[in-house]
Design goal:
By secondary structure, this protein is an alpha/beta fold. It has one domain: Carbon-nitrogen hydrolase (Nitrilase/N-carbamoyl-D-aminoacid amidohydrolase, 4-Layer Sandwich), CATH 3.60.110. The chain contains 7 helices and 15 strands. It has a 6-stranded mixed beta sheet with strand order 6-5-4-3-1-15. A 6-stranded mixed beta sheet has the order 7-8-9-10-13-14, covered by helices on one side. Strands 2-11-12 form a 3-stranded mixed beta sheet, with no helix packed on it. The radius of gyration is 17 Å and the shape is globular. The N and C termini lie far apart (39 Å).
Length: 264
């Protein structure tokens, strides 16, 4: 399976619509090079640009949806289009991820469950999602999570129980905690025996330097590819069948006790 992680730089001087057009063009450039393309979290606004959330919030089928659906169809790829601030007409804002099929159809939408901010920022401006989301691709089942979710291992156990073999995690992770980013991505891969594709942002979001360093990790915790700190397209090819073989060779998930319903 071939994947391209688009580590987008968010520049406050670049209009959102200009960035949307630029990113759609980058997605189209992956035609013939990738089966799955992944964008980062809140790349339209910046993950820490709290004042922009309300101003740039859009309905689910808004301008980003339309642009990314068309780009996925043009490129013929599965596209995890990162996340956008979604305005629910009957509720709060949500940090919502969109996944499109190669035909441009919406395969899944995931509202971020764990909101970052400790009683400020995203934690008070956004509503919390409630549902775990998986997407079946031809070669693997993808479990969808976003940024701060990475710190909550029970969520990923739930995704594995739902069939996930690959975890896709867009993020706007700050540079000052970059070591946590790498450590947690590898931990989630090892403990769940899955591939992890974690796509971060570059640039500076409302004064907060971003970590970049998008990373792809295999089920043994081996880093297959890692980006630098700037805007970059990180490409990697991996054998999705390794997940099943790893779980057969080292059947640690079989020995789970806590969190597993007792028989009978």
């Amino acid at each position: 399976m071939r994947a391209s992680l688009l580590q987008i730089a968010v520049d406050e001087d670049e209009p959102v619509e200009s960035r949307r057009v630029r990113v759609a063009s980058l997605v189209r450039e992956q035609a013939g090079l990738a089966d799955l393309v992944v964008l980062p979290e809140l790349w339209t606004t910046g993950a820490f640009a709290y004042e922009e959330f309300g101003r740039e919030a859009e309905p689910l089928e808004g301008p980003t949806y339309e642009a990314m659906a068309k780009a996925a169809s043009d490129a013929g790829v599965w596209l995890h289009a990162g996340s956008v601030p979604e305005r629910d007409p009957e509720g709060p804002l949500y940090n919502t991820s969109l996944v499109f099929s190669p035909s441009g159809g919406l395969a899944a939408a995931y509202r971020k469950i764990h909101r970052f901010g400790f009683d400020k920022g995203e934690a008070v401006l956004m509503g919390a999602g409630r549902e775990l989301v998986t997407v079946r691709l031809p070669e693997t089942v993808v479990g969808v999570a976003t940024c701060y979710d990475l710190r909550f291992p029970e969520m990923f156990r739930g995704l594995v129980d739902a069939g996930a073999q690959t975890l896709v995690i867009p993020a706007g992770w700050p540079e000052r905690r970059r070591e946590h980013w790498t450590l947690l991505a590898r931990a989630r891969a090892v403990e769940n025996q899955v591939f992890v594709l974690a796509c971060g942002t570059a640039g500076v979001h409302a004064g907060v330097p971003q970590a970049g360093h998008s990373i792809v990790v295999d089920p043994w915790g081996v880093v297959l590819a890692e980006a630098g700190g700037g805007e970059e397209v990180l490409r990697v090819e991996f054998d999705a069948g390794v997940v099943g073989r790893t779980r057969e060779q080292f059947p640690v998930l079989r020995d789970r006790v806590l969190g597993v319903s007792a028989p009978g």
